């Protein structure tokens, strides 16, 4: 305590000593902040992780525009498109390339029995639009084989696959695992199974002229909105999206319409409220204990802002230490989540948001103490 | 010598209506620099109320109060009064009112910090004040590690931080034994005479009386005696 207080002065010193003098209460404050940071961090990290997962397929293509069946709400659930419409799209000025991408649900029969639902992704091997990312075993070129598929290590156990080369059945057709990706999650919990467009048509019994999406790349310098409008006008009963818009639509669909996002936000809000209550209660108790000292300061001529500074610095110290401890635990949760199908994302931006939320939480908790100090009577020092 | 504090027909009433209590009645006096004024009187005579009025802590209900010529009228905000206290007045309390979590020198340094003295100078000035009061070797101790007399001298050092022109002390020797109490009274007397500070001491303690250059006597909220003893023993 003394060592930490050395070098501080004035309001900072008073704030630190007020907190550290009553260690039990200080620990309660820090645990409260830490718990709130943990709750907010994990819930917001989950929200961001889910958001990234829901739009992962869109975000990992290089398409400028997506042509989807009319009424499509998200990338995981869609109807079918006539693949020949890609030629109509190619005729629109500004369009450089159009590639078909298939995404259809299928049944995966595990080698030792049992069936799982999977999302078959069929892409054009030559263009690479929709190719698997984070490949850790095998080669995408191996997908040229008729029965070849690539799955993610996160779902390998769920799909009954232990090693490359294992064979399974997809919709009663033989398939062979030729590669593993790492960290490609699905929000639907039907793991992505990558293969060529032709193989995917075969596995899901689509006709050779059917696909799910058409991915458009523009010629350099072409205006995205102009081309999108032209494609919409030319193709009629389809939806044409900018990639970013389609990604956001997928996130909105899964996180808003399913209520998953609301639940996570609610839990994060709960963490914030818990933190405000704990910080407010413990800071207030500390303030009430030290009212004679605040009255003395006031009698000595300290302006209100000096007294407020003591309280706010107590809140700030609690925020910084609680945030550090909380983020340490959040970091452990993030690390733990890397090997699971549920990702807790924690980019630097979210760390910054959490830091601001923690500071906001502690400052709000300090308000009740400030309100009490505002009414302090300096003549009470004579009682 | 011009008065640092001038009170004219000052009255203080607590409460309103039937429960109103008049603590001070028509007090008029001037407090001069460089002398130690004692305020004596039985409990409830209005000594502390008068000290609070002088210290810009309590607004007079009637009459006028001037501090260095500035009228402490009712229109002054609490912040303005605090600023006047900060600039001109030091306080010494009966129970010391030191900050228990701060060391002796830090207690003094806080007063300097409020006055916005640069942090680099606070340590040196706090030590100098404690040294003057014979507490250099206790500067690194917490109040709980000091005797009553040492605590009160730390409190005096804190009150003197920033060199106020007025020092108001409320029963500064009440919690001290005889010899220690005399030592504290002598210190206050020295501050008045050596530094030219206007020292006002509220006290019940007869041991303090010989140190007073001037003795005010209050009864029932009225100033009933104002005299200068022929010769202070201090």
From TrEMBL, chain A:
It is found in: Cell membrane. The chain crosses the membrane at residues 26-50, 263-285, 306-336, 342-368. Residues 27-233 form the MacB-like periplasmic core domain. InterPro entries: ABC-4/HrtB_transporter, ABC3_permease_C, DevC, MacB_PCD. It is a multi-pass membrane protein. The keyword Transmembrane applies. Residues 266-378 form the ABC3 transporter permease C-terminal domain. Keywords: Cell membrane, Membrane, Transmembrane, Transmembrane helix, Transport. Pfam families: FtsX, MacB_PCD. PANTHER family: ABC TRANSPORTER, MEMBRANE PROTEIN, HEMIN TRANSPORT SYSTEM PERMEASE PROTEIN HRTB-RELATED. This is ABC transporter permease.
TrEMBL record, chain B:
GO terms for molecular function: ATP binding. Keywords: ATP-binding, Nucleotide-binding, Transport. SMART domains: AAA. It comes from the Bacteria. InterPro entries: AAA+_ATPase, ABC_transporter-like_ATP-bd, ABC_transporter-like_CS, ABC_transpr_LolD-like, MacB-like_ATP-bd, P-loop_NTPase. The keyword Nucleotide-binding applies. This is ABC transporter ATP-binding protein.
